[in-house]
Specification:
The structure is a homodimer.
Chain A (H helix, E strand, L loop, with lengths): L14 H12 L6 E7 L10 E2 L3 H9 L5 H9 L4 H8 L6 E4 L5 E2 L6 E6 H6 L1 H25 L3 E4 L9 H12 L3 E2 L2 H7 L9 H5 L4 H11 L5 E3 L5 H18 L6 E4 L4 H14 L6 E4 L5 H9 L6 E4 L1 H4 L10 E7 L2 E2 L16 E7 L5 E8 L7 E3 L7 E3 L6 E2 L2 E5 L2 E2 L6 H13 L3 H4 L8 E4 L1 H12 L4
Parallel strand pairs in A: 6-7, 6-11, 8-9, 9-10, 10-11, 15-21
Antiparallel strand pairs in A: 1-5, 1-12, 2-4, 3-5, 3-19, 12-13, 14-15, 14-18, 16-17, 19-20
Helix pairs in contact in A: 2-6, 3-4, 6-7, 6-13, 7-8, 7-15, 10-11, 11-12
Chain lengths: ~475, ~475
């Protein structure tokens, strides 16, 4: 993967990261080591999990992160100090990054990514990191929920037209990570190696003297990928009968009509009627594709009504993360100059966890996810794990071996992990969700997955909370 | 403005646009003239209006729209016909575009953009156009609502970290069009000529041995732009007292502390306490900046509580269009080969208006917006205007002169309109909203603005609805 933005990459940050960087630079603090964590506080969609995504895009963006001549000139014009500008001109991101794998299932409060480097480089990339991880994870999670509702049906991403601007490029990859089969988005398909698909709009049908002629022409040009949109005029009285006629004509030429698409009306009713009409005509192999304002809830309802739909096209709800719009991930400093630190907010849930931390996962006897533990990096054995901020809540994991989820993925700015295809990451998502007990996956009031902190981390946190100044 | 994507621009489309284009190409229909309209069906945020935005980005993207060698090779690999690929290689967008001005206030059903060209070029750009206009308008509208709530207070966009990926670049410009003063987003500021700003995060404060030292260092390095974040440890007991101490020290050096920022807790209570503490210390000039999950409703509530906040930083809700997530704009064919056409959906609201249409605006005696009329392009006089789809609803505008809002902005692929700064467009938004009666601007159940269709268009529509095949 190469980054989508290919120039002035260093400018894809927030202004305050530059003022802080200049502050550290001019006050002689630039080489002070720091450790930052990425984590989110709340599952999106009132759901029970998040699909962690965006790691590869983050890593390639960091490798490509530069303040080119144009960028430096611009920043100089804003009044930044000339010695600092010279520093930026030569700047390369050289930190280490520890992360869970892309496609892993993660939960609130878990430090899924840890960045270790000097104060300037770790601070400068805050917004870049948050923007990429928050959005990719948001959409991969939405896609996984839709996949959950759709079972084995085919899923196509139709979201680009109402996606949030250029974010649509990233959304389509995240959709495939979460379980979609194809995308309408040609740019994403090209850039990320996804499978694209698409046939016709209503405008195709309207561009011909009549619907039958529009269908016939399309079938003639695309005999092997012919899906006919049947709701331009009247689905049951015109669209499906015309599609059947063309389907039967195709049979005479030894071709098969691939499918029909329903894009309006009651999809449960129309798909059942369409199935009957197609079957009666001997076109039992013709698939039914449905689109129009679908999301995981509508698809779940269609499935419950036994609507005979083979393939769903999902647009806006997928590409924009309908119901949440943003994952609330944050990037907080946990160590500075070898000293653990935490922000003690008025709201206990907004406090971060101090120190240099790793993430562990405990599984039950059947391999199902049981609990996750956040510990200091050098911890190896677990007894009691404590709720990150609710007092008194704890769980005993003695005897269970914690699998360490966070591994080194970047060293001194160089990517250590091999490139993975979207399909490989999608397989990880699928396997991960399969191991997640159903009660954490359900849409209504999912059971909260246990995430605890180790005894040593708990003690460190209490110490910092109780000290006068943190 | 130059487009943000600068290579393979022709791929920023949906796959079905390519299959349809190949279909038109191979069936000898490529030169058939077509007219498409852009319009949306529903105001976002349960509001009463939309700020039309994204036009300049659309026009420069169309001028730059190319299938470069890499793109053609990719499409060839997907199995597209070689003669069609050769056509794409030489393809340039050469259509005419008529549009309302960027920053104009528009309403549901209004054809704000009309594209006239051959079938292929008008069809190919559907998704590109929708993606840019839908998202820019969505965010400009959100920003205008927030500006409405904030009155004369300063507004800063802090959205990039939770924006929808690269869409964050576009969101920051749209925020300024809608009335924001500054953005944290350096890339957008650079690319679009916006004003950027930002000072410090909690991590800055945590990187020093204590808060006072962190504040002092910052004040020393940025004596003219010093805004101190006061909620890292304890806002009232530590943050504000330390900020006051540094503010008084700055006075001795003939400098002035610019402001303090509150980022957690009860902003109404804390801002009032902060104001009292600052005033008592003689620092009445120090501004109070507030951030943390703000939107138009929270800001309205803070204003109603007389919270003494001078400046609001708004992030996620702004950049992602919280409450809507997408504007439901569509792009529908209204004329093909000189023949008016419409899709007759099962849902009357999803039918488009046929023909080559223009948009007119009627104002009352005081210059306030009264009603808009959609008419055929050559119409000049209006009598009765009819509701676009509800039978029996009509309004008499006889005697009022309709101002034509849609003008030619692109001719044969060349941009006709001059470049406008974001500030110029923001002024148009502000003037337009000022002319919109308050009942259409309120957040709760806004009064629906009258949009009617002319008698001739009404007759044409009825004729097509009643004809057997459209």
């Amino acid at each position: 993967m190469v980054p989508i933005l290919n120039q002035h990459t260093g400018l894809y940050i927030d202004h305050y990261e530059l003022t802080m960087a200049q502050g550290y630079f001019l006050s002689g603090m630039k080489e002070i080591p720091a450790v930052f964590d990425y984590y989110f506080r709340k599952n999106p969609y009132d759901g029970g999990y998040v699909v962690f995504a965006g790691l590869e895009e983050l890593l390639v963006s960091l490798q490509d992160f530069r303040f080119d001549g144009t960028a430096c000139k611009y920043l100089s014009g804003l009044g930044f100090d000339s010695s600092f500008i010279s520093y930026l001109e030569a700047f390369r991101f050289r930190a280490d990054i520890f992360s869970v794998k892309e496609g892993e299932i993660v939960f609130p409060q878990e430090p899924s990514v840890r960045v270790e480097g000097n104060l300037i480089e770790t601070q400068l990339i805050e917004t870049l990191l948050l923007n990429l991880l928050n959005f990719n994870s948001l959409i991969a999670t939405k896609a996984a929920r839709i996949r959950q509702a759709a079972g084995d049906s085919q899923l196509m991403d139709f979201g680009l037209r109402r996606a949030q601007g250029l974010g649509g490029i990233q959304a389509s990859r995240a959709a495939v990570l979460g379980g979609f089969d194809q995308t309408s988005n040609v740019y994403s398909a090209f850039h990320f190696g996804l499978e694209s698909s698409g046939t016709m709009a209503h405008s195709w049908v309207q561009s011909f003297a009549d619907e039958l002629n529009a269908f016939r022409t399309y079938a003639g040009i695309f005999p092997d990928h012919c899906i006919l949109l049947v709701d331009t005029y009247n689905t049951l009285k015109s669209g499906i009968p015309n599609a059947i006629r063309v389907g039967l004509e195709m049979e005479k030429r030894d071709r098969k009509l691939l499918g029909i698409r329903l894009d309006s009306g009651d999809l449960a009713y129309l798909s059942k009627e369409a199935r009957k009409m197609l079957d009666r005509a001997g076109l039992g192999y013709v698939q039914i594709i449905a689109s129009n304002q679908l999301d995981e809830y509508v698809i779940k309802s269609l499935k419950e009504q036994s609507a005979p739909i083979d393939s769903f096209g999902v647009g806006t709800a997928l590409a924009t993360g309908k119901g949440s719009g943003a994952l609330d991930g944050v990037y907080k400093i946990g160590m500075v100059d070898g000293r653990p630190t935490m922000k003690v907010s008025d709201n206990v849930q907004k406090s971060n966890l101090p120190g240099r931390k790793a993430l562990f996962r405990f599984r039950d006897e059947r391999g199902k996810l049981m609990a996750d533990g956040i510990a200091l990096e050098d911890e190896k054995e677990f007894g009691i794990i404590y709720h990150p901020y609710e007092q008194g809540k704890k769980r005993n994991v003695t005897g269970y071996t914690g699998e360490k989820l966070t591994g080194k993925v970047m060293e001194q700015g160089k990517i250590l992990v091999g490139k993975q295809t979207p399909g490989m990451i999608a397989d990880r998502v699928s396997a991960g969700l399969n191991d997640l007990p159903e009660e954490h996956r359900r849409f209504m009031n999912p059971h909260i997955y246990t995430v605890g902190i180790s005894g040593r981390l708990h003690t460190l946190k209490e110490k910092l909370v109780n000290s006068g100044n943190n």
